[in-house]
Amino acid sequence: MNLRDIKKDIDYILSAFIEDCSLVAAVNSKVSEDKASELMEEAVDLYNELRDKVGKVEGNARQYYTDLRKELLEKTDALYEKLSAAVKKA
Asked: How crowded is residue 31: how many other Cβ atoms within 10 Å of its Cβ?
């Protein structure tokens, strides 16, 4: 695991989520654009938070990046669950 890979993972995963939000808002008229925008803002905040953490390695770099990747996946899964709940609610 290196710094470049974790940065690419953060970029790819969160940009894919934002794309999915905009697609859901465009295709499913029952999902409010406000809810989709709110979720996109959460994704951007998560992106900024994780990118800030990338440069601040604490302790063992390998373990730090492993934990950071785990945090990325867990928080992105939570965002997808929120998106799924919004679609089901609509």
From this structure: 20
Half-sphere exposure at residue 60, Cβ-oriented, CA atoms within 13 angstroms:
5
Residue burial 43-63, b: 16+ Cβ < 10 Å; e: rest: beebbeebeebeeeeeeeeee
Q: Please tell me the total count of domains within the chain.
A: 1
Per-residue pLDDT tens for 41-50? 999 999 999 9
Q: Which domain holds residue 13?
A: 3-89
Tens digits of residue pLDDT in 1-14:
678 889 999 999 99
Phi-psi region of 32 (alpha: psi -120 to 50; beta: other; left: phi over 0): beta
